[in-house]
Amino acid sequence: MSKSVTSSFRRTSDHFEPDLVQDPGEQRKLRGYLEQIDYTVSAANQAVIQKDIHHVTLEDFRNLALTAAKARTAWVSTAIELAKLHKALEPEQLARLSHLRGVYDELSEAYEAMRRMVERGYLSYHKGLPAKG
């Protein structure tokens, strides 16, 4: 499996990577099958996602980004405050810190997923309100 670095975590590709097939005809046939699979998966994703979400706007991205930023801030500020205690973390403190990290991670993953959905055409993007400035 291949890995790529995205922001602060590693994502593992879950695509099958076949051994090299020497016969060019077999290679073309395999590529054709994989294209059919990718098209089918894309159509299924588009149908399901658009049924529930319909479309997203710049405001949706902004709201998710602000929520993730607040979650990251809560996580890091809590870690800073706990570090000021100069002692080992109690189980409850560690649980709270882990929870805050989980919230941030989930929101970051949701942003990445929403961006991928737009990028891949599963979800339509509508120009929302102009950015506040």
- Proportion of residues in β-strands: 5-15%
Helix-strand makeup class: mainly alpha
Order of helices and strands: EEHEHHE
- The average pLDDT score comes to 87
Number of domains: 2
Main sheet makeup: 2 strands, antiparallel
Q: Please, how many helices? A: 3
Radius of gyration: 21 Å
Classify the helix fraction into a percent range: 55-70%
Task: Tell me the distance between the termini.
Answer: 43 Å
Report on the structure:
Residues 1-10 have a biased composition (Polar residues). Residues 1-22 are annotated as: Disordered. It is a single chain. With 133 residues, the protein is mainly α. The chain folds into two domains: 22-52; 55-127. Helix content is 63%, strand content 11%. The strands form two sheets. Strands 1-2 form a two-stranded antiparallel ribbon. A two-stranded parallel sheet has the order 3-4. Helix 2 (58-83) runs antiparallel to helix 3 (91-119). The termini are far apart.
What's the layout of helices and strands?
Layout: E1 3-6, E2 9-12, H1 24-52, E3 55-57, H2 58-83, H3 91-119, E4 124-126
Parallel strand pairs: 3-4
Antiparallel strand pairs: 1-2
Question: Can you give me a brief rundown of this structure?
Answer:
This protein is mainly α.
Relevant terms:
single chain; 133 residues; mainly alpha; two-stranded antiparallel ribbon
